[in-house]
Each structure stands twice: as C-alpha cells, then as structure tokens.
DNA sequence: TATTGTTATACTCTATAACTATA
DNA sequence: TATAGTTATAGAGTATAACAATA
C-alpha cells in the first residue's frame, strides 16, 4: 500500500512526442488566426474558405470541418455577405444549397492556402526528404489508428 | 489575363503533411475531451491537471497553458472545489498563490497522463523506432522554427 | 418518415480591462 | 511603479433541439 500511485508516469519520450505534435498544431492554428485576421475573417471563416471544395452542400462542408451543420449557416452567411461564396439552388433536390466560390472567393482561397501550407510554421523548414519521412510516419500512425468503438459496426458517440 | 489566379495551388504533398498533423492533433484533443468527461471535467480543467507541475504560481500555469491568467482563476476554482488542488500562500511573496495537488489530484493526474500519453491515439501504434524518428523530425521542425517578430530578441519556450 | 438547412439557445474557452493587494 | 491574482464582460466556437421545406 504505502503511498504508491496506481499509475506510473508515462514514458518521457512519449510525452515529448505528443507535446511536439500539439505544439506544432498550436503554431499552425496561431498562423491560421493571424492570416484570417489580415483578411478580416475569424479563424472559423478562414478555415471554411480553405476547406470548401466547390460545389458542396452545406452539410458536406460541416462534415469536412468536423462540426455541426448549424454552425455552418452563420459562417456561410458572413462569407456570402462579403461576396466570397454563394448559395445556389440544387436543381435535383430543392432542400440542398450548393456552395460555390465567387471569383473573389476563389482568389482569396488561393491566397490563404499559399500562406497556410507553403509557409506552414515549422514544417516549411524541413527539407523535402525530411518532410517526406515525417509525412510517411504520420500516415502510418493514422492508418493504424482504430477509432474507439469501431468494432465493425457503426460508431456512435455517447454523450 | 484569362482568369489566372495570383497564387498557385500549394504542393499537394505539403497539404497532406499539414493536414496529417492537424488530424492527429484533433484526435489527441478529442481523446482529451473524452477522458476529461469520464472524470466530470471540462477539457480545459483536465488540461490544467495534466499540465500543472507542482508547486507553481497561477501565473506559471497560465504560461504553460498558453492562456491569460484570468482564465486560470476559474479553472483552479473548480479544481479546488473538487478537492484536486489547493492554493497555498507563498511565504516569501504574499501576492503569490502556489498551486499544489491534493492526494486525490495527484492520483487523478497520473490516471489522466496514462490515458493521454500511453494510449495516445495514432502515436501509440508506432514502433519505438518509428516514434523516435517522428520525434526527431518534429524536434527538427521546432528547432528551426523562427517565431514571427523575433528579430534577435530572446524568444524561447521552455518545455 | 427522413433529410437539408435554419433558428434559438446555452455552454465552454478565451482575451481585455479594471480592480486589489502586495512588492 | 510593477506584479499576482481576481472579477466583469464580451466575442468566438460549438452542440442540442425544435422547426420549415422538401424528399
């Protein structure tokens, strides 16, 4: 018994690996925020512009952003107000609104992607070879990852 | 002119690398949220428990969480209410409150760290060697990263 | 009945600024 | 004057639930 804890401390090397991923992601997020602000957008709006692959229904954009569809309404409202995207009626299903870029929106998307990817903090300092190794290791990690509750049936989230 | 955009599309390989980092980080964050909820904590509260290296002033915890000190007050209020941490007067400077864990808090911290690091989604599927390579590449990226606006002044980040 | 999108609402996270008590 | 911590407040982000229009 004594005061011995039920859990050993995790491997310090593992802690460093995880913290490095989180720190790098934090920098990428901070960069997104800064670039968004330069264009008078919130981070969520900028992310929508970068993520949208036109044409796409609202619901698909929500899926790509990993958020509820109700959030997308407000984000797209603002982007539409600024003349960056438009909602187009779908000829085959009148419930659906297809999102498309305006010319200004498409240009902005290119500018944002250039800043966020070409100049990605940290990652852009690696050589092509190093980045290739990093990419392959991350692919490996994601490939082998099994989401919790995926026992071959459809996964739902208990809340 | 012919509608040619001012920006080329970024290198698809680069896009994949960045998106992999963000996806992995998203999974780590979702895991934090799930583990926090199991213990009736919000993600921010759980992160404070995991991050706190006792004893530490409020201000230092805020720095480690990369957030404003005003946020820490509420987080620690709740952790203190649950008997996980305590605020102790600093004998040398009465402005300072040193945060320390209770026994329950220290035990919880161990449990959370075990879940968040030992079972880190994605990363825990790599072999020791693969994880070592990943860690070294991420270290390299962070080492070479120059924060914007760091023109010769001292900008470090102690881990 | 099920689905797309909208609205209303609430909760969390975060930053800013003003305040206190110390130093 | 400067710093540690608190309080009040406001802005983003997100989720849930109820709803209208449509399938």
Structure, explained:
The structure is a homodimer of 159-residue chains. With 159 residues, chain A is mainly alpha-helical. Chain A has helices at residues 12-38, 43-51, 58-64, 69-81, 103-118, 128-144; strands spanning 56-57, 85-89, 97-101. A 3-stranded antiparallel β-sheet of chain A has the order 1-3-2. In chain A, strand 2 (85-89) and strand 3 form a beta hairpin. In chain A, helix 2 (43-51) crosses helix 4 (69-81) and helix 3 (58-64) packs across helix 4 (69-81). The longest helix of chain A is centred in the N-terminal third of the chain and has 27 residues, at 12-38. The first copy, chain A, is globular, with a radius of gyration of 20 Å. The two termini of chain A are 36 Å apart. Chain A binds a DNA duplex (23 and 23 nucleotides) through helix 4.
What are the SSEs and their pairings?
Two copies of one chain form a homodimer.
Chain A: H1 12-38, H2 43-51, E1 56-57, H3 58-64, H4 69-81, E2 85-89, E3 97-101, H5 103-118, H6 128-144
Antiparallel strand pairs in A: 1-3, 2-3
Helix pairs in contact in A: 1-2, 2-4, 3-4
Chain A binds a DNA duplex (23 and 23 nucleotides) through residues 42-44, 57-59, 67-73, 93-97, 159.
Q: What features would you highlight for this structure?
A:
three-stranded antiparallel β-sheet, homodimer, 6 helices, disordered C terminus, 159 residues, globular, DNA-binding
Strand order of the largest sheet of chain A: 1-3-2
Q: What is the terminal separation of chain A in angstroms?
A: 36 Å
Strand portion of chain A: 5-15%
Give the SSE order of chain A as H and E letters: HHEHHEEHH
Specify the structural class of chain A: mainly alpha
Q: Of all protein chain pairs, which has the greatest interface, and how many residues does each chain bring to it?
A: A-B, 58 and 59 residues
User: In which range does the helix fraction of chain A lie?
Assistant: 55-70%
Q: Provide the residue-averaged pLDDT of chain A.
A: 91
Structural Rg of chain A: 20 Å
| Subunit arrangement of the protein | homodimer
Report the principal-axis shape of chain A.
Answer: globular
| Count of strand segments of chain A | 3
Uncertain parts of chain A: 151-159
SS field, number of helical segments of chain A = 6
């Amino acid at each position: 018994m004594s005061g011995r804890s039920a859990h050993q401390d995790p491997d310090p090397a593992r802690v460093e690996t995880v913290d490095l991923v989180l720190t790098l992601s934090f920098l990428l997020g901070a960069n997104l925020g800064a670039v968004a602000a330069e264009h008078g957008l919130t981070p969520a709006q900028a992310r929508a512009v970068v993520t949208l692959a036109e044409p796409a229904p609202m619901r698909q954009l929500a899926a790509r952003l990993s958020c509820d569809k109700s959030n997308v309404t407000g984000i797209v409202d603002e982007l539409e107000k600024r003349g960056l995207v438009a909602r187009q009626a779908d000829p085959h299903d009148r419930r659906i609104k297809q999102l498309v870029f305006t010319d200004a929106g498409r240009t902005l998307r290119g500018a944002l992607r250039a800043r966020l990817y070409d100049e990605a903090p940290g990652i852009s300092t690696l050589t092509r070879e190093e980045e290739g190794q990093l990419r392959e290791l991350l692919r490996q990690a994601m490939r082998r990852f099994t989401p919790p509750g995926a026992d071959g049936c459809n996964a739902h989230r208990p809340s």
